[in-house]
Amino acid sequence: MLEISPEKVCFTIIKAREFEVKDAVTDPDPGSNATDDGMYAVLESHRDDPVEEELTSFISSLSVDEQVDLVALTWLGRDDGDLGDWSDLRSQAMDAHNERTAQYLLGNPLLAEHLEEGLSIMGHSCEEFEFNRL
Question: What pLDDT score was predicted for residue 46?
């Protein structure tokens, strides 16, 4: 039923968690040496955030069908339907698809949770993937 592999969804979930924990910028111009500022900048959401860039690049590199599945899984995970509505959710996601899919998904503050729940409803889990990665 999924055009995207569960492993790719799990990777997106892990990166989305890293992105979601970022805090507001407290020092817009941190020291040139990371040890000078106590490494706090990595926990803040700067314009050139490497986690955001990696996640945006990854989502943008997916095929249209894979991007549509990510959006539909997000909707499924936020209770916009149930497993019986999958083809309708996917069809709506296909109709709404455009080149801003990554930005749309990253605008969801609960992206990781919604994707994880959607994946679970589809009968998949990230436990093994996370165990092998972490």
Answer: 47
